[in-house]
Design goal:
This protein is mainly α. It contains 17 helices and no strands. The protein has one domain.
């Protein structure tokens, strides 16, 4: 019987039971955390993400994504082994932050524009923080040092590109979704532009919806997604608070403190790492507040947290990918890799981009 109780398949069930018990023990703390998470969703995430979700739906309906797909294929294919439409996802993902890249990747898969392997490569390096959060919230708000923004941006976004280059070797035997045109350079350029316009026109005809219907569908789809995102933010806010009340966060912090000390990093940053494992905002804020750790180490941990994304973001990504055959495991590995690369880049780039403090 014990053997059945500890099977991996029943671990989520026991986790849910534990959270329910903690919620019964600390109802006030759970309520306060729930209200706090709802406030973050309504005041920060909803106004920041909702317009991008609506616009992305409209661009797909108008065929703009197909246009850029044909146009950017010669660039994306050799660098990342992705079709040109990956360039659109890359741009939108880096501009608007997580989880927009995963949302667009799932949409492209649903329209059979990318394969599973290409979807796994694409979501692995287009899940990043948006520049407004990195500069305004982290650099200025948490660290009170705007000069830190170029370093964090170079480490975070540069690390993402490196992950993309590494992921081109992922599932190497998988076939490409479609092939590029052949011929001379001039012919390729002309045919590429003509094909891009033709692809946009055909996509619009295949969609067939009027502008009014397309706008209505885009708003409805964006609202459904925002509700899912908000629910996950509230749930993880409550879980974090309950684990803190139960002392689990302190125990985990002590364990990570020893690991940081062994790696030559200040143990005082363990609290930031623990918070960042669950939620990126709390982790980055704790890294900025870790006085006495040294700014370079604080920035390195913040870069790791931004690139890892936090389990709250991971849950959003997993939810978006649940209706596709894109595997979460490769995404998880890519997040860990991105975090480690970003951390190392902070130390490598500190002499050139680090603030003069």
């Amino acid at each position: 019987m014990v053997r059945y109780l500890i099977r991996p398949s029943v671990i989520p069930a026991w986790t849910a039971v534990l959270i329910a018990l903690l919620l019964a023990l600390y109802p006030s703390a759970g309520l306060e955390a729930s209200v706090r998470g709802l406030s973050i969703w309504w005041q920060v995430l909803f106004p920041a993400l909702f317009p991008f979700f609506v616009i992305s739906e409209l661009l797909l309906g108008f065929g703009i994504v197909h246009f850029f797909g044909k146009l950017l294929d010669p660039l994306m294919r050799p660098l990342f082994r992705l079709p040109g439409i990956g360039g659109f996802v890359f741009t939108m993902g880096y501009a608007s932050g997580y989880p927009v890249g995963a949302r667009l990747t799932a949409q492209l898969w649903e329209q059979r524009l990318i394969s599973r392997a290409e979807g796994e490569r694409l979501v692995a390096f287009t899940t990043t923080s948006d520049p407004i959060f990195l500069i305004g919230a982290v650099s200025v708000g948490f660290f009170h040092n705007a000069a830190l923004a170029p370093l964090l941006a170079a480490a975070h976004y540069g690390g993402g590109l490196i992950v993309g280059l590494i992921m081109r070797f992922h599932d190497r035997k998988a076939p490409a979704s479609y092939q590029t045109t052949s011929g001379s350079k001039a012919e390729k350029r002309k045919s590429r532009i003509a094909e891009a316009i033709r692809a946009m026109h055909q996509a619009r005809l295949l969609d067939g919806r009027t502008i009014g219907a397309l706008l209505q569908d885009a708003i409805q789809a964006a609202l459904k997604l925002m509700i899912v995102v908000g629910g996950l933010v509230v749930v993880f806010s409550v879980i974090m608070e309950l684990l803190t009340k139960a002392g689990a966060i302190h125990i985990l912090s002590e364990a990570i403190s020893g690991m940081l000390g062994a790696a030559g990093l200040p143990p005082v940053l363990s609290y930031a790492v623990v918070n960042g494992l669950f939620e990126v905002t709390l982790g980055a804020k704790a890294a900025g507040a870790a006085g006495g750790a040294g700014l370079i180490h604080q920035a390195a941990i913040a870069a790791f947290i931004l690139s890892w994304g936090g389990l709250s973001v991971h849950a959003q990504i997993a939810s978006l990918l649940s209706r596709t055959d894109i595997r979460y495991g490769s995404f998880l590995i890519a997040r860990l890799l991105h975090g480690c690369i970003a951390l190392v880049l902070v130390y490598l780039l500190w002499s050139r981009l680090g603030p003069l403090v």
